[in-house]
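Wed. Picked up where I left off yesterday with Ribonuclease ZC3H12D. The coffee machine is broken again, so keeping this brief.
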Amino acid sequence: HQSKLDFFCKLGYGKQDICKVLENLGQEALEDDVLKELIRMGSKPQALESQPQPSSLKLVARGSCSASPGLKWLGDDDSDSSDCLRPIVIDGSNVAMSHGNKEVFSCWGIQLAVDWFRERGHTYIKVFVPLWRKEPPRQDSPIADQHILEELEKQSILVYTPSRKVKGKRVICYDDRYIVKVAYEKDGVIVSNDHYRDLQNENPEWKWFIEQRLLMYSFVSNRFMPPDDPLGRHGPTLNNFLSKKPVLPEPKWQPCPYGKKCTYGNKCKFYHPERLHQVQLSVADELRAKIEVPLNLGEEEEQ
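Structure written out below (tokens, as returned):
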């Protein structure tokens, strides 16, 4: 009885459980039977009981935001994503006349442009239109969907530039200056197909700003479409152009067409994956290095 008690105690089982099983099975019970009965009773070795239980891991779907509040993904920011987008200043007259094929002041074109930037998440959108466009349309200056101007004004998106009549003549303030000035102060983007050359000559700072922040566009079947490369083929993408924090693309190296047979050495402008961990020497330097090694060895032997 004592030998069986000591044996199962070494295994880590408690004395009370062992004695209880031996009383039920008798002193002549085999060790395997005792072990089975201990397991059936739910008794566990103390070594296993003292081990910390693994925490229950919770599977989270990829892209889910149900992570624990203490954790924060790398690159996450408490600020709203709209804070990373540049303010938008729209030349209302230019957009409306462009949508109306330069014949009609089409307010629907302004709405299409505003909706396009809204869908992207831009929160600061301003449209500048001369005040006299609120007047009833005339035969020489037709206006289509004029009610859209009132709706955009109520939403604090549309701003009328001042104009008045003096002795029957209309005095109009230069709305282009409003557009460039507000966009410059807000560090935003000007939406227009106008180049504002007179304003570029007026202010050198505005000249740089207009060259770098002018977003041109086209209307294709009532669809507002800015170019994917606003500053040309080698300039930033449209997403980077409209963002305060542009994301630079990873450099893509073109593999060398000659591969391992390339004889340009470190002067080769192409990518060589086999040379990542090698010191890239020119062919002449490699030959010199190979010649110098046996010469140096021969000199040491003579000494």
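Quick read: The CA atoms of residues 47 and 69 lie 34 Å apart.
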